[in-house]
Amino acid sequence: MKYSIAALTSLLCSAAAFTGQSSFTQTLSQRNGARSSSTLVMKDFPKPNVEDTDNYRQGEALSASFKSSLKASPSEKKKVAIIGGGLSGLACAKYLVDAGHEPVVYEARDVLGGKVSAWQDEDGDWIETGLHIFFGAYPNMMNLFAELGIHDRLQWKIHQMIFAMQELPGEFTTFDFIPGIPAPFNFGLAILMNQKMLTLGEKLQTAPPLIPMLIEGQDFIDAQDELSVTQFMRKYGMPERINEEVFIAMAKALDFIDPDKLSMTVVLTAMNRFLNESNGLQMAFLDGNQPDRLCEPMKQHIEKNGGQVMMKSPVKEIVTNDDGSVKHLLMRSGETVVADEYISAMPCDIMKRFVPKNWANLPYFRQIDELEGIPVINLHMWFDRKLKAVDHLCFSRSPLLSVYADMSVTCKEYFDEDASMLELVFAPCSPIAGGDTNWIAKSDEEIIDATMGELARLFPTEIAYDESWPATKKQEGVNGQARLRKYAVVKVPRSVYAAIPGRNKYRPSQTSPIPNFTLAGDWTSQKFLGSMEGAVLGGKLAAEVVANRAKGNPDKPIKEIQQHIIDAAASHVAKEPAGVKGDGAIAWGAGASFSTDNTDLLKESDPAQFVAV
After folding, report:
1. Per the confidence metrics, is the pTM higher than 0.90?
2. Can you tell me the mean pLDDT for 340-350?
């Protein structure tokens, strides 16, 4: 949707008129003033209308096409081998069975989900690879929940964004989205009526550079990929304080990276969704662990409709014919898997290790070298008492932390009325992500100590001075009572692809130059970010390529490849693929609590993670 200058001017003027009304901009501490921490109760909100958007309708139409125009006749039915049981591989298989095909998912690990996988520790507590939030502006994910009949597993929260106040420890401030006001006016009002973060002048100064995004749409957004967020700000004269107040938090939440390293296309893509969809920024938590509550329904749908999901089935090699087409998959077990079509739903860093020697000089595969996963750390911290939490996602605006949530309040399965469990994203955590310290190479104890220090600084009236964690001693005014009872540190050395400036053009199309091989994954070319939504859409588009080909239709076009990639590909020295060494999450591009074996494996396979700073 595009808007006129007049409409946008009206938005700014009307919002400015409201900025004196402080009732919309109370901090949470003011709202909750007399409420003790122990009386906070979980409150879910009705599912918002996520269906009335162009993106949802496009996703719905594509879903429907698998059961209509792309539906295979018995003679068109294909056996499809899918490497990887993350969200993208599972989504791909789901839509292929809907189209009448026979997909088999080969997952190397003993758990599904990839970067949304989770597992239980010795106490039975769930450890998640990441803190995952579902947005109203996730149209293909929302379609998937509807198609599987599991919308009731989403716990929708109040429509607002919550920020910790760095200069006012223990307090929060919000962007409140007023019910009944459509996009983009609700977004503009939410920002302009907040009195705690930016002045009215700074807000008005921020708006003009964003107007071309609304008027020109995706063309303008894509054209900003060569600029970082801070470069875009300075080019268009945006106030420096918006970086400190908003963009740092947004960048770390979107791609675990600081704004001077993040492509502005990523921020504009997200803002475009939120500005064009009235409920796009409303957030939901899954009501329990991802393997049971999301991946299992996908697996059941696949198997009920003729597909298979194979666990503990690692692929050793993609074996090709002389003409470059895939001959079969060689499994570590020695078995060979023969199919009509083959799909990789592996992360970009793992796919690089599987590219066969006779594909290595093809520009399509050479461009993948320009992409790499970004490191991130996910923390679980169990305290001995209840903290004064909020039932929502919080943007910490901390140098070390990105977003966090008290899962004992936000999630039904993890609910605990007596004690809090914080799940926090620690980012940026490595020089690869633009950080000053290589936290990936540090011990769990060092990471938790630094985090406890930050929590003590942000919430001095709650976190106790604790000799076990020296960083709490360095903070002034710490007089709380909460002590850390238990923790888990999950390191993801290569998470979503690093969306640094200039990378978007290297994301490959799902269609490849190999006639029976297709790529899936959130890092492949699609209009959403490296995210759960991007993973589902990447898998869905890969399924469309295969289903379309099975109908005898011309292939979807291959995305244009940059000339310098084409020029360099011919002289590239092709080598036998490295393959994947070892077992478990780290070997296959996911996250895990580190053991000595995991550390040794990472040092061998990805030594860049241990560069000292």
Report:
1. yes
2. 98
